[in-house]
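Allow me, if you will, to draw on your knowledge of protein folds for a short while. I have a record of one protein: its chain in single-letter code and its fold written as discrete structure tokens. I remain grateful for any guidance, and I place the record below:
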Amino acid sequence: MRCDYQQKLARKNSKPLYLQITNEIKSFKLDSIFKAYLSHNLIELDQYYIYNSFNKKADWLFHYFNYRKEVIKEGISIIEYSNRYHLNLRRCYSNFRKIGGSSISILYWIYHRRNFHQHKPKLSVKEYIEKHKLEQKTAFRQLQRKTMSEFWSHHFDNYYQNFWIQGYNVSEYAKIYGLNATTARQYLFNFPKKLFNPQVIKPWL
């Protein structure tokens, strides 16, 4: 059993931690997004999780934060996360939808593309991949990916400025403009409103 001190610490830290991360994300800056997803105090978060793990129900507050962190650090999928933490897959899809669900998986490669370009020319692509232990074939393609074409840049702006805010998903937008939906999903994502401003990730797509 946990001691009273640990229980009180977990209660004390859980709410401020939630408010801190939520406020950082609302600042709509890419640095703040990554800071919010990666740099929160994991000791506090783990204490909160262990304290609440005595409950039989899954602690979704912990998993909201932890899923986003592991998406950035590992590129984990919802299925992989569900298996790792022995969670109901259907509940994961449903509950994670409000924090971006599978759509935020794009942040994994945005994080690495941005990080790689910040370290050029100190590190070659191969050296960066080895340092961060990335899957080589995919990483070579993702890190050397060309910037968004003018065609998709136009659709990116059009979708998020005129359709996304009205509730249209990517498939519906692709159908309206006769686009290949699979290709469109490489540039357009079904982010929840108010998660962050999609324009901050555009330079890295």
Observations:
- The longest helix spans residues 4-25.
